[in-house]
Write a structure and sequence with these properties.
This protein is of the alpha/beta class. Helix content is about 45%, strand content about 15%. Helix 3 packs across helix 14.
Length: about 375
């Protein structure tokens, strides 16, 4: 793999490498009844056949270099593990990787065709791009998913501990100011969802000072942490390890965690250039097949626990790619390529409703979600 450490969107502060994070979604299914044994056997047979077919195909396919931009966070631990173990090489895929500061910066190069695959969260910016340049960018899978549980609390809104605000009701009563990364960022939607689920559906949320909960913009989670520490901000979006640090220091307390407000949330996506998909559809399928294998390996390592060799390998490999200290890393579960289309649809509708979109309606899912490559990778 060729690793280009020059960011697309200007110099990337090294401290930011361990602080930015994106989450995504999780879908699950289970069988029941007397057919469960046959279902497991059939699934195992299908998986074995799909693996054999992919290996036979990979041996005859020339290596394809994929230009990909990644956000340098632990959300990519599964991909780093797959690279280290040679899963992408097995699929005859070479990743020419560039680190970026924010997911929004991938949209322009994806449209122009100078980038093949990028990652980022759903946002008003993504929906506007789809509306304004229809057919140019496709969502082909997800990076990581938001799953319930304490271990997956890696992104949320924390509030200054001195304010005594611990729930939505008191946040509204005190007109709390919440720092997010940008107008139309997905955390704006999830903050609205938190208010609604907390019995504050009538509370207003916006950038106007008259709002019940006031949004403000900040450059990144690192600047939010620093501003909380100096008392310049009341609350804001923090991610691991900053969220854990703020709590352990007694600096802030959590208002909500994204994985608990919206389990299965679609917060980090693989997006591909339509031109790349047209010219290299087989390579896109191979990439997703390798990433699916990587995601399963990462989940297995996390399940094995910190004392296992697999877990230590996951942390060590991630630290190497992020050029940071392994002792500072927290890797959360939820690696999956599955896409939660319902979450995307709901977010698009919300941003259309509050006027964050350039047009009156969000794009239809069929305009920008193409799961055919993922289905081919999974043998479906």
């Amino acid at each position: 793999m060729k690793m280009n450490t020059t960011p697309v969107a200007g110099p990337l502060p090294r401290f930011l490498v361990a602080t930015l994070s994106c989450l995504a979604l999780l879908t699950a299914a289970c069988g029941s009844g007397s057919q469960s044994g046959n279902s497991v056997a059939n699934q195992a047979t299908a998986t074995s056949q799909a693996t054999a077919t992919s290996q036979a195909t990979a041996t005859t396919r020339p290596t394809t270099t994929i230009r990909i931009s990644l956000i340098p966070t632990t959300s990519n631990a599964a991909l780093f593990l797959g690279l280290s173990r040679g899963y992408f090489t097995d699929e005859h895929v070479n990743l020419d990787t560039t680190f970026i500061a924010t997911g929004s910066s991938v949209l322009a190069p994806l449209i122009s065709g100078s980038l093949d695959i990028g990652q980022g969260g759903p946002s008003a910016g993504l929906f506007n791009t789809i509306n304004e340049a229809p057919g140019k960018v496709k969502v082909i899978g997800s990076v990581q998913t938001a799953v319930p549980g304490e271990a997956a609390r890696n992104q949320g809104v924390l509030v200054d501990a001195k304010l005594g605000i611990t729930d939505a009701r008191t946040a509204v009563a005190k007109r709390l100011h919440v720092a997010i990364l940008a107008k139309g960022q997905n955390m704006e939607y999830y903050t609205r969802l938190w208010l609604d689920k907390s019995g504050q559906a009538n509370a207003t949320l916006g950038y106007e000072e008259s709002s019940d909960v006031v949004l403000v913009n900040a450059q990144n989670p690192a600047t939010i942490y620093a501003a909380l520490k100096t008392g310049q901000l009341q609350s804001g979006l923090l991610v691991t390890p900053l969220s854990q640090r703020a709590i352990s220091e007694g600096l802030a307390v959590p208002l909500f965690w994204l994985n608990e407000v919206s389990p299965g949330a679609s917060t980090n996506l693989f997006m591909a250039s339509a031109a790349f998909l047209k010219a290299n559809g087989d390579a896109a399928t191979a990439f997703l097949r390798a990433y699916s294998r990587s995601a399963k390996a990462a989940e297995s390592a996390l399940a094995a626990g910190p004392s296992s060799d697999a877990f230590k390998e996951l942390i060590s490999v991630t630290a190497k790619y992020l050029t940071t200290d392994a002792a500072t890393l927290t890797v959360s579960p939820g690696y999956s390529v599955d896409v939660n289309a319902d979450d995307l649809k709901a977010m698009g509708a919300y941003f259309a409703k509050i006027g964050r979109l350039s047009g009156p309606t969000p794009p239809a899912l069929s305009d920008y979600v193409d799961l055919s490559y993922l289905q081919a990778a999974q043998g479906r």
